[in-house]
Design goal:
Helix content is 40%, strand content 12%. It starts with 10 loop residues before the first helix and ends in a 7-residue tail after the last strand. The protein has 154 residues and is of the alpha/beta class.
Length: 154
């Protein structure tokens, strides 16, 4: 979808998404699936992200269920997080709790969210996503509706 037909009408968010799409590239070795090397720290310069159509679906689903809290595994550079956070903000508030193992990607994701004006709706935690359940169980922002996608599960 073009920016004119996107369900996200915030131009700051649209601009960051467009920049991330324009910068999309793959590692020379094809990435972890092609090379067999699954060390995430080797791919700190690459965001293995969703496509805009997937992001728009994420946004619409979160809006439809009036999600107030989302737990995201493998935040990467924050592209999917932009869609989650836009929906949370547009639903009236809440939190996106993200987990990312690679410190370099955490920094990039936080920068992208700041640039888009969405940082207030996101808590990215550096570390292993498998501990996210413990992170969310004590959260004071628990709402009636939550979404915990497993985009990178095998």
């Amino acid at each position: 979808m073009s920016a004119a037909t996107s369900p996200i009408q915030d131009t700051r968010v649209q601009d960051v998404i467009a920049r991330l799409q324009a910068d999309r590239r793959r590692p020379e070795n094809g990435g972890p699936r092609a090379s067999g090397d699954r060390n995430p720290h080797l791919y700190g310069d690459y965001g293995f992200s969703i496509h805009p159509e997937q992001g728009e679906l994420i946004y619409l689903l979160c809006r439809a269920i009036q999600a107030r809290r989302v737990v995201e595994f493998a935040t990467s550079v924050g592209l999917s997080t932009l869609y989650f956070a836009s929906a949370i903000r547009d639903n009236g508030g809440g939190i996106v709790i993200g987990a990312e193992l690679v410190p370099q990607k955490v920094a990039v994701a936080r920068h992208n969210l700041e640039e888009a004006g969405l940082a207030d709706w996101v808590d990215i935690r550096e570390g292993d996503a498998r501990t996210a359940a413990r992170w969310t169980s004590s959260s004071s922002t628990a709402g009636p509706r939550s979404l915990a996608p497993r985009w990178h599960a095998r």
